[in-house]
Queue: 2 jobs
Job 1
Amino acid sequence: MGLGVTLSNALSGMRTTQDGLTVLSRNVANAGNANYHKQSLVTKDMNGGGGTYSAYVNIVRAFTASLQRNHVSELGDTGFADVRNTFLQRLETAFGKPGDPNSLDTALQNFTSSLEKLTVSPEDYSTRALTLDAAQTLAQRFNSLSGTIQDLRRETETQIGAEVNTLNQSLLTLQSINNRLSDKTLDQSSRLSVLDERDRLVTKISEIVDTQVTYRADDTVALMTRSGLGLLDQGATTFSFEPAGSLSANSLYDINDANNGVGVLTAYTPSGLKLDVVDQKLVQSGRLAGLINMRDVTLPQAQAQLDTIAAGITQALNTNVNTVSRDDTINGVDLDLSNMESGDALAFSFNQSGQKHEYRVVNVQDNSKLPMNYVNADGERVIGVNITSGGAAAVAAALQSAIGPGLTFSANSATSLRIADDNGVNTLVTFGETRKVASGPQDGTSAINLFTDAQSTFTNSFDGTPQIRGYASRIAVGVDFMNDNRLLVQTTPTGSLGDATRASYLLNRMDNANFTSDNRLMPELGNYSLSGSVAGLVTQVINYQGDQIQGAKNALDTQMVALDAVEQRMSEEYGVDVDEEMARLMELQNSYAASARVVSVAQELINSLLQI
Amino acid sequence: MKITNSLFPIGGAYPYVKKLNESLQQLQVQLATQEKAQTLSQLGSNRVYDLTLRSRLSRLDAFRANIDTATLRLDFLDNSMTRLAEIQSDSRGSLSASGVGEDGIEIASASEIAYNRLDEIMAILNGDLNGRYMFAGNRTDSEPVVNAKILIDGDSSRAGLKTMISERKRADAGGLAAYGDAANGIGRLVVDRTAVTSTAVTDTVTLSDSVNPGDPTIASVSTNANDVGGSGAVTITPAGGAPAPANVQFTGAPNPGETVTVRMQYANSTADFVFTAVTADPPGLGEFTIGGTPDENAANLQAAVDKMFHPSSVTLAEDGDHSFGIKLDGATTDSLGISIAEQTTAQPHVLQMTVDAQPSEGQKVKISYTLPDGSKSSFELVATHSSPPARGEFEIGADTDTTAANIGSAITTQLDYVRQTDLAAASANKATEEFITTDGSPPKRVDGPPFDSATQQIDGTLANGKDTVVWYSGETAAGNAARQTAGARVDESTTAYFGVLGNEAGIVDLIRANAVIAAETFSAEEVGGADRYQATASRQVARIAAANNGRSGSISVISLELGLSRAKVGSAAERHAAYGGQLETMLSSIESVDVNEVAMQLLAVRTNLEASYQTMSRLSQLSLVNYLP
C-alpha cells in the first residue's frame, strides 16, 4: 500500500460526494413538484488496486407500485364523484332552497294560495289576474328547470367530447413513452424524468376512466379498465364520440341504436375491435362514467319527476271526474264512454271473495301500444283499450277476458258500458268513475285546460311518444285564459262571475287528486316512484333531489378523504424533505472536506518525501 | 410545475387548517343570513320537515287572507243588516200608528215616507264592497236589485209596480155588474134576483129574460153534456121570439157532474150561473137531481133555475171561475124568516138569501168572503125600517119580494165600499206580492185589456207583450241555502258562509211593505180613504211584525247567522295564530341559527385558527436552511 492508494481512495470519495451533490441539488430544486419522485444515490464499496473505495452505482427513484395502483384507483372514483357533484350542484342552484322565491314549492304554494283566494273573490279582476300570474310562474318554473336539466345534459356531451380528446392524446403519449422506456440504451437520468412523465400520464388517464395499471419489469405500463377493456398494451385503444347535437327531454339513451337519442361513445381496440362503450358498460368510474351517468340516468330521472308533477297539476285541473255509485237495480254501474280522448280513463273497483280489486281502463288509440296490461305503483291494474274505435264493446271484451266470469261486462250502447256483479254472492262492484279531459273553458263543467301542452290539450296520452315525456319543458298556461281571465270562473258564457264553483273544484282537485308516476315508461330510471297529491309530489321530488345532491357531496367528501390519505402517503414516500436534504448536504460537505484533507495531507507527505 | 402543499411548513396540517377556514366562512355566512342551511342539500334530513312546514305555513297564510276578506265582508254585511233592521222597526212604527193625523197629514205623507225608506233599502241591497255586490249570492258582478224609482214606476219600456197594482185593482173590481146604485164593479160579484123566468113543458125547459126592464138578460146557455165522453142527453136550441132565448131539451139522463150554464149579461160584464146534475135529492143551490125520464130531468132543472132566480130571494154570485175579485165563503143570518142556500164547492160560488118571512128590525145577514190576497173578511147587513137605510142596513120592505130586493141593494152598496177600501188594499197587496217575487221569475200580469173581465194571468215578459221590471237579478237559492251562496274557506275543513240574498223572506217582506205604500196614494178626502190606508197599513204591519223574526230568512235570523259565521271566522283566526306560531317556531328551529351558538363557535374556530397559524409561522422558521453557515 502506498500514498497513491490513499490519494486514489480520497479522490473516489470526492467523486462519489460530487455525484451525491448532483442528486441532492436535483431533489432540492424539485422540492414541491408533485410529479417529481425523490431520487437517491446508491454507492458501493469497491475493492481493487489494493484498496477499498466507494463508487457510484445507480440513482434510485422512489416508487411503490402498490401505492401507485391505489392512487390510480382512488383517482377514478374521485373523478366520478367530482363530476356528479359539479353537475348536481348546478341542479341544486336551479331547484333553489325550499321557500326561496325561485323554488318549485314556493311557486306551487303561491298558485294554491291564489286559488284559495279565488274561491272567495272570483269576481275580482285582480284576484283572477294574480291566479293566472301564479299559474304562469309555476309553468315557467317547470320550463326553466327542464331547460336547466337539458342544458346540463347537453353540457355532459360537450365534456364527454373533451374528455375523450384528452384520453386519446394521453394514451398515445403514454404509448410512445412505453416505447422509449423499452429502449435499454436510454440515459439513466433522462429515463428517470420519462418515468415521472409516465406516472403523470397514468394519473391523468385514471381520472377520466377507471384504470388498472400493470407495471412491467422494463418500466413500461399496461392499462385496462376495471371491466377489462384494454386501454394500452402494445398499442393504445382509441375512443371516438359522436355527439347527438341538441339534446331534448325526448332524446334518451336506448340500447337499440335505432331508438337511441344521445351521443355514441365508441372504443377501437388495437386489434381492430369496435365496441360501444355505453352499451357494454365498459367504463364504470372516472369522469367519463360520471358524465354518462348524469346524461343517461340522473338528469333524465329529474326530468321524468318534473314531468310527473307537471302532468299531475295539469290533470288535477283539466279532468272531470264523474263518480257513479252502485245502482242496485242493475247490480252494478253504467259508465258513459262518450267523448273519450286518448289518455282519458275509466276506473272501477269491486270486491271478490272479500278481496278488493281496482281496475283502470285507459283509452289508447295507438294500436302498437296494445295490448297493455300492467299494475301501476298504486296497485291498480291498468288495461289499455282503443275506446275511440272499439267503443264500449271493446272495453267489455277486454275486461271480460282480463277479469273472468266474476263480473259481467256488456255494452248498453257504443258509449255506455255496464259492469254488473252477482249481487254480492261472490262479487260486488263498489264504485265506478270516468275521468275525462274538459273539452273547453266554457263547456259547463268545472275542469279547465289551464295548463296546456304548448297550447294543445294535455290528456296524458300513451299514443306514439307518451305525451308526458318532456311535458315539463312544454307546459304553458292556455292562451284563452291569458286573453280573458273570466274563464277561470265562468263555466258558461253567461255564468255569474261571482260563482265560486269552478274555483272550489280546482282547489279541491289540487288538494285531493292523487297521482302516481308511471315507472313503466322509464324502467331504467329506477324504482323511485312518486305518488300522492300534487303538493306531495313536489315535496317528494325536492326531497329526493336534495338527497341525491347531498349524497353526491358526501360521496365526493369521502372520496377526497381517501385520496388525501393516499396523496399524503405519496408525498411522504416520494416527496423531497428539504431538512433531510440539508442534513445530507452537510454530510456530503464534511465527507468532501475530509477527503480533500486526506488529499492535502497526502500531498504534504509526498512533498516532505520529495524534499528529502 | 405543480406546487403541492408539501412546501408548507407542516404539510400534514394543511387540510385541517383548510377545514377550519371553511367552517369559519360557513359560520360567517350563517351569522350574516341567520340561516343554518344555504342550499337544498345542506338542509339534510330536515328537508322533508322544512318542505312540509313551509307548505302548511303557506296554506295558513292563504287562510289568513281569506279570514281578512271574510271579516271585511261580514263587517260590511253587519252594517247593512243593522241598517235594514232599523228601517224595519221604523216601518213598523210608522205603519202601526193609528189615526190619520191632523188634516189627514199622516196618510197623505205615508206614501212619500215609505218611498224614502224603499229607496234606502234598495240602495243598501245594491251596496258593493270592492266591486262585489254583497246581496246577490254568487252573482256578485252586477247590481242585484233595481232602484226604487224603477221598482215603483217602471221605465220607458217596462211596467213597474204602479201599473201592476192598477191592473190588478181593475181585474179584482170587475165591470159594472149590479143593478142598484153601484157605478163600478163590486169585486167580480153579481147580485141577481128575477132575471130569468123558466117554464118546463114535457122534456124541454124554456129559459126567458125577465120582463122587468133594466134587469140583466140571458147572454147564452150552454152545456158540457155533449162534450166527448159526455152523456149527450141535453140539446140546447134558441127558442123563437124574445124574451125567450133558449130551450133546453132532455133526450135522456145526464151524467152526474154535467152542467147547464146560463151566462147573464150585465151592464158591463157577464156572470155564469151553473146548474150541475147530481144524484142527491133534494139538490143544493145550483144543482138539479138526475131523474129517470127526460121529463123528470126537465122538471128538476126548471125547479133549480126557478130556485136560483126566485122573486123573494137575492142571489150573490161570483162572475166566473178565475182568481180575481172577492171569493164568497158563506152567509149566515139570525133571522128565522130568511133562509140561506150556499154553493161553495163547485166554481163559481153562489150564495142565496131567500126571504120567506119578513125579518124583524135589528136582525142581521152576514156575508163572509176572501179577498184576493187571501185575507178573510165579512160584513153584516142589519134590517131596519128607516128609509133610506144607511150603508150596512137594509130596509124591511112592504113584502118579502121587496125586502129581498132591498137586501140586494144593501149588498151592492156595501160591496161598492169594500171595493174602494179592503178590496183595493188587498189588490195592491196581492199585486205587490206578485211583483216582488222571491224566485227571480217575471211577475204574473193580468191578461188584458180588458182587465175588468180578465180571467187569467200571464208572465210579464217582452215575448208576451207585457215587459215588466224584474226587481231582483241575483242568485236564487232554495230553502236555507242562502248563506251558502258565498263563503270563504278559513281552514281545510271549515268554510265560513256569509251569502245574503236580496230575495230572502225578511228582506222581501220589508220591501213589499214599503213598496205597496209607496206605490199608492192616500188621501183622507176620498171615500173610504182612511179605511183603505188602514187596510193597507195593517196588512203591511202584519207582514213585518216582530212575530216573524224567528222565521227563516228574516232580518234577525240573517243577522244571527252572520254572527255565527263571524264567530267561526274568529275562532279559526285564533287557531291559525296559535298553530302558525308553533309552526314558525318549528321552522326556525330547523332553519335558523342560534346567534349565541354561532358566535361561540366562531370564537372557538378563530382561536383554533390563530393558534394553528402561529404554530405554523413559528415552525416555518425552523428550517435547517436558516441555520446552515
Job 2
Amino acid sequence: MSEQPVHYYINGIGILSPQKTFDNNSFLTEITSYDQNVLRCITPEFKDYINPIQLRRLNRMLRIGLTAATICMRDAKVQSPDGIITGTGYGFLDETAKFLRELLEQQEKQLTPTYFMQSTYNALAGLIALSVKCMGYNNTYVSKGLAFENVLDDAILRLRENKDHNFLIGAFDEAAEVQYLASIRASHFKTEHIQNLDLFKTTTKGSIQGEGAAFFMLSGKASDTTWCILRDMQFVYNPSNAEVVTESITSFLAANNTTLQDIDLWIDGASGDVEYDRIMNTLSETLFKEVYHVRFKHLCGESCTASSFALWLGASILKHQQVPEILKVDKERDLSGLKSVLIVNQYMNKNFSFFLLKHI
Amino acid sequence: MSQRVFITGYGIITSLGKNATENLHALVHRKAGYGELSVLDTIHRTTLPACEVKIHDQQLYTSVGVTADIGFTRTTLLGLMALQEAIKMAGLSEEEVKSSGLLSATTNGGIREFEKYYYELMDPEQRGDFVRFTDTANPGEHCERMADFIGIKKYIGTISTACSSSANTLMQGAQLIKYKKLDRVICGGAEALSKFTINGFNSLMILDPEHCRPFDSTRKGLNLGEGAAYIVLESEEAIARSGKTPIAELKGYGNANDAFHQTASSPDGKGAFLAMEQALSMAGISPEEVDYINAHGTATENNDLSEGLGIQRLFGEQVPDFSSTKPYTGHTLAAAGSVEAIYCLMALQQQKVWPNLNFKNQMPELSITPVQQLKENKVLRNVLSNSFGFGGNTSSLLLVSV
C-alpha cells in the first residue's frame, strides 16, 4: 500500500455535451444555442473512436459514452485504467421505454432482447471494460442527482489504497423523451418555449432538459497531462434550508484549509427554475456575495449528472486560465492567476454537492 | 489507521418469508418459495415459475406503518420491510439512524409501477393519482423515498451493476467505514418482480420453465424472484462505544470485471476467480481456511460453468462446501447479493450449510459437486458469498465469525 494521497489529480478528460466540447484543444470558442427546451449532444464522428463493427451494435448513449471515455483515455495517455466507475441518473431510459412499449403493445409476446440488454445501467461501464480489456474494479451508481458524487467518493477511497492507480470515472445522462413527458406535468421542465441562452432571464418553474457524457482520469499522482487538482468533494442530501448548505460549505472549506477569500471563482449549479434555485440564489447573495460568479446550465441543460459538466468547466478554467464570456454573471474583473475554483451544484433543490479544485 | 467493519443487524423479506425468522425456518426445512404468480399480473403467471412475495402492496403499507397510499413502489415497500427489521435487530436509536448512510441497490427501481401507468404518465394532459409514480423510472427514487421515510440524511447512494448490485453496496459501505467517512452504513438491495424483468429475461431465453437446478448438467436457466435485504455495517469504534456484540465481520471483498461479453460470463471464470481471490487476499485468509461458499449459481448454462471453473481454479483440490440458494428464492437480481450475504450470516450463526436444492446430475465439465443435504453442526468460520452480473461485473464478500 502506497502512502495516502493528499491530492487527486485529473489527468485526462473527455466530454460530449450540447456544446462542442469533444475537442480538448478548444474551450467554448463557439457557443451553440437551441430554440427548444431539449438540448442534445454535439457529437464527433463516432468512427474515429469506436470500431465500425462495435459501432453498429450500440445505442446512441452507449456511442456517446464510449466516445467520451475514449477521448479521456487518449487525453490521459492511459490505455487501460485500473478501474472504471460510472454514474447516471436515468441511464438508458429511452431504451428501457422501447422495450416497455413493445412489451405493452405486443402483450408480452415475441420480444427481442436487444433493447433490454442495452438498458441496464452498468452497460456503459461494462462496455468500456470490454473495449479496453479492463478486468479491474467496476461499479455503477444511479443515485439521481448524487450519482456522479458517489462515483467520486468511491474512486477517492480506492485511490487511498493505491495512489498510483488510474480510475476512469464518468457520468452520463440522456435527454430522455420518457422523462420529459412524465415530469413536465410537475413542471420539472419549463412549459413555455425559451432559448437556452436566456435560461437565467426566466422567472418561471422548471428548467431545460440536457444530456451528456463526461469522463475523467483520476489518480493520486500527477502526470504531464494533468488538468488540475481535485482537492475534495462533498455532498449534502435534502438540506432543510440555505443555512444548512452554508454551514456545510463553510465546514467543507475549513476541512480543506481553504477560506472563502482563497476562492477565485465559484461555479453555480442554478438551473433556471424559480423554485429549485432558491437556496442557490440565497447563497449567491450571502455567502458568495464577494466571490466571482459563473453559471453553466444554460449551456448543457439540467440533468442528474450535470455536475460532471461543471467539473470539466472548472478544470478547463484552471487549465486554460480563462473564463469564457458566456459563463460570466458579474462584471469584468481581474481574473489572472486563477488558483481555486469551487463548484456548488444542486439537483431539484434536494441533492447538493461541492467540489474544490486547485490549479496544479 | 483504517477501521474494521462489523455487522450488527440485518433484515430480509423474500418468497421464503417476511422476516429473518421465516427465512431461516424455510432454509432449514427445504421450503422453496415457488408458486404461481398471483400478485403480479402477467401472461407468464402459470408458465414461468417465479418466487413471489405473497403479500399485496396494501398489506406492505400497513406493515411498514403507512396508512395511505403515498406513491411508494413495491421496491420501496419491500425495501422498507427489510430496512426496518435490520435497524431493529441492530438496535439503532433514532439519532443513530439519522447519522447512518444508506446504500441501496436495484436493477429497475420502480419499473413495475412505471409500466403499470405508462400510458397515463406519457400523456402530460392527464391528471390523477398515478402522478405519485411520476419518477419511478428513476432507479435512485426508491433510495430517496426510503431515506426520507426512516430519516436518513447523512449519506445516500444507489448502485446498479445488474445481479451483483447489492454485494457492491456492502463493499462500498465497508470502504466508507474503513476510511472513516462514516461510522455506520446500512447496505443492501430491493427488487420487485415486474413485467419488464420477466419479459426481459424471457427474451434472453435464460428462464427455465421448471424449477432451477444450479450446477446440474440439465440446468436450463434461472427463475426470477423478488425481495429485499439490508445489513447494518458499523465501525470498530462504533462497536467499542456501544458495547454491542457484532454478528460477524466483513473482512474481505473483491470486485472485478470479466471483460468478456455484455451479458455472458467468460468460459474460464476469470472474473469470478479475481473477485474471490481479492476478497481472500484483503482478509489475509488462505483458500484452505474458507469453510463455505454461497455461490452465485443462477443455473444458467453460462454462469455455473464459469463460476465452477473459477472456484476450481482458486481452490484447486480442496474446494470447500458450496451451494447456491437460488432454488429457494429464485434470482432476486439486485437484492441477491444482500439476501445471500444474510444467508451466509445465518449459516455462521447456526453453524449450518444450506443445501443446493434440485441438484441431481453432475456437470461433466466440473469435478466439484454442491452440498445437497442440510449440514448441521459444521464448524463455519470463514464464508464467501459470490454475486455476478451482466456487464461482466463480479463481486465476492468474505464474512467471518467473531
